[in-house]
């Protein structure tokens, strides 16, 4: 039985390789086949030589029953009516607020309060895809800057975190599938020399990565390191937004064009420099919207010295998310629902903290802005 299963997986991977599908899909589908035939012992994953110290008070993730060395799992799709939200709460100065309980959250589904059924604070290992623009635009500036920042981000990952690395220009490239060996990622980054193409397919790259993460269980995120420009995607911005409404993957963005904008440097515009400025503002807005819709955050650093703090924030956001689950009172209707998550005190009032001048300030909750309900089963 074991020999037949292995043979089928090998033939399946070989067939998809001929079709030119991304590496991460190969891994996911092969793993799904293994799950259907029966569990197998995961192969050991090499550990990096040195990793940052894990935060104190770390709690077990929701999937703590699986071995720490087991790769992010792929689930067989089953229609579910439970909506899970990953939320982060900060004060007015951007400091994370921890220690909140189930009763400190209120969820509104299309302005209707919902009963929270599942709740767990989480300082869990991270599952994240680094999606980096490596294009020849601006004389290769974005490719060079992306390499430096991607390498910097690795220093903020722990030994138990799972990281995959993808690049995009005119096409996407899966350089390293999910691994806990950060040395593999570093080697792939160092192996990048000069971009093959000038174009950047930001929309296609984001949508492809979301699709590859669709069946991965548990918390997952994408870190987009890009200029924010899209020059050659098959998908439009509206199509991208439509898919963002359906995902439970958090997107964080780091924009690479702010320093150039501060210096007044823009790509040539046929209609004048003022339109080049407008184009950059549009690119920046796109990255902001990707993050806002999915409960993430976008940064636009002007100085290299900001990067450590930014990547510390990305890691802290992911490790300190509250997982909130509820069953919609409207049932399954196939429609898009707007979500609002509020932090409240024990009396049900909006949660506040004192700023440096002892003034009461409302806290900020970062959570995805909505979800698309599954379509009702036929006959319902």
Strand order of the largest sheet: 7-6-5-8-9-10
Radius of gyration: 21 Å
**CATH fold-level label of the largest domain:** Rossmann fold
Helix/strand-derived category reads alpha/beta
Shape: globular
| Helical content class | 25-40%
The residue ranges in which pLDDT falls below 50 over 5 or more consecutive positions are 1-68, 75-79
Q: What is the CA–CA distance across the termini?
A: 40 Å
**Which CATH class of the largest domain is shown?**
Alpha Beta
* Overall pLDDT score: 81
Count of DSSP-assigned helices: 9
**For the report, how would you describe the main beta sheet?**
6 strands, mixed
**Which architecture of the largest domain per CATH?**
3-Layer(aba) Sandwich
* Total domain modules: 3
Please provide the ordered H/E string of secondary-structure elements: HHEEEEEHEEHHEHEHHEHEEEEEE
* Strand percentage: 15-25%
Count of beta strands: 16
Spell out the key features of this protein:
single chain; four-stranded antiparallel beta sheet; Rossmann fold; 380 residues; alpha/beta; disordered N terminus; 31% helix; six-stranded mixed beta sheet
């Amino acid at each position: 039985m074991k020999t037949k299963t292995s043979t089928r997986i090998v033939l399946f991977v070989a067939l998809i390789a001929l079709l030119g599908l991304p590496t991460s899909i190969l891994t996911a589908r092969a793993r799904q086949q293994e799950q259907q035939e029966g569990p197998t012992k995961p192969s050991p994953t090499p550990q990096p030589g040195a990793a940052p110290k894990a935060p104190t008070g770390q709690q077990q993730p929701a999937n703590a029953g699986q071995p720490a060395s087991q790769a992010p799992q792929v689930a067989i799709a089953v229609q579910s009516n439970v909506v899970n939200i990953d939320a982060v709460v900060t004060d007015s100065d951007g400091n994370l607020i921890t220690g909140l309980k189930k009763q400190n959250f209120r969820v509104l589904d299309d302005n209707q309060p919902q009963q929270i059924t599942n709740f767990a604070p989480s300082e869990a290992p991270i599952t994240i895809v680094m999606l980096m623009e490596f294009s020849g635009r601006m004389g290769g500036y974005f490719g060079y800057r992306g390499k430096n920042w991607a390498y910097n981000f690795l220093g903020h990952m722990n030994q138990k975190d799972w990281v995959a690395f993808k690049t995009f220009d005119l096409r996407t490239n899966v350089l390293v599938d999910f691994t806990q060996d950060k040395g593999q990622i570093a080697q792939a980054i160092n192996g990048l020399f000069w971009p093959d193409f000038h174009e950047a397919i930001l929309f296609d790259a984001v949508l492809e990565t979301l699709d590859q993460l669709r069946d991965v269980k548990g918390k997952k995120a994408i870190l987009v390191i890009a200029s924010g420009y899209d020059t050659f995607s098959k998908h439009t911005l509206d199509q991208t937004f439509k898919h963002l409404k359906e995902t439970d993957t958090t997107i964080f963005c780091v924009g690479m064009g702010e320093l150039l904008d501060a210096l007044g440097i823009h790509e040539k515009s046929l209609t004048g420099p003022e339109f080049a400025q407008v184009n950059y503002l549009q690119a920046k807005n796109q990255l902001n919207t990707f993050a806002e819709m999915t409960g993430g955050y976008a940064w636009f650093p002007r100085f290299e010295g900001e990067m450590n703090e930014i990547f510390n924030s990305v890691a802290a956001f992911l490790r300190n998310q509250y997982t909130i689950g509820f069953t919609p009172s409207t049932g399954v209707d196939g429609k898009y629902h707007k979500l609002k998550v509020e932090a409240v005190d024990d009396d049900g009032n909006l949660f506040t903290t004192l700023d440096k001048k002892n003034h009461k300030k409302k806290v900020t909750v970062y959570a995805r802005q909505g979800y698309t309900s599954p379509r009702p089963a036929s006959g319902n």
